[in-house]
Amino acid sequence: MPLRYLTWLGHAATGDLGVSVAGQRPVTELLAPAVGQTLLLTGAAFALVLVGGVVLGAAGAARPPGPLGRLCGALSTLSISAPQYSVALLLIAVFAVQLRWFPAGGTHSAFGGGGGSGDLLLHLVLPAVAAALVPLGLTARVFRAALASVLAGELADALRARGLGRFAVWRACVHNASPALLTIAGLQLAYLLEGVVFVETLFAWPGLGRLLYDALAARDLPLVQGGVLVVAVAFVGINILVDTAHAWIDPRVRG
């Protein structure tokens, strides 16, 4: 087995990931469209994570002891605590089955959807929301803590003493809290890339997670190895980019 693994690793370094046992096609041909679909879903979910995390975190940091701060904290905790698969099933039951506002799965409707970008966006809403809930709550809590610490620190007092307005003080404090936001957002992006298996399976989204799930069920070892390799490389690459960007934004962390 070690020799077989080293042989496969040597071929993978040249772009040859073998042939799928179940599909009888090169693994790279199966992975390419699946990776594209996963990147689309991850990008939509990550946009929700950033917007929701920043809004909830900033609102909570602005009024920590007030009703708004408590509400934002409760929403963040609820987002983190909600099981992803249960939320996905709830979204399907309410918005797809009962209200019929969004499709229950897939990427395009077989009838009446037209197959355009609007149809794709409708199919993207529910899985993106389900995938974004947990990372959104974590991002909001970390950004809230970082921003609240800066707002209560000497920087904010010094800026107010210089006569700067509320907007200028907030802009400077948000800039100082941005390294913490960048770090947690990068980690959540990596989590989204490797943690959408349940979402893609429940919503029949033809991405990398769904492909790996089917490959495991079929015991398709070459396809599983190729998919895991792609996820691992993406995870390491994202962390390297986050560390580089962190050093660029905050000179204090440069060694």
UniProtKB/TrEMBL annotation:
Keyword Membrane tagged: yes
| One Pfam family recorded for the sequence | BPD_transp_1
Extract the GO molecular function terms from the UniProt entry: dipeptide transmembrane transporter activity
InterPro entries, sorted = MetI-like, MetI-like_sf
What region holds the ABC transmembrane type-1 domain?
35-242
Database matches in PROSITE patterns: ABC_TM1 (PS50928)
Its subcellular locations are: Cell membrane
Q: Which Gene3D superfamilies match?
A: MetI-like
The UniProt entry's GO CC annotations, sorted and at most eight, read:
plasma membrane
Claim: Transmembrane is one of the keywords in the record: yes
Which UniProt key words apply to this protein? Cell membrane, Membrane, Transmembrane, Transmembrane helix, Transport
Residue ranges spanning the membrane: these are 39-61, 82-101, 121-143, 180-203, 223-242
| Topology within the bilayer | Multi-pass membrane protein
Similarity comment text for this entry = Belongs to the binding-protein-dependent transport system permease family.
Would you tell me the protein name for this molecule? Answer: ABC transporter permease
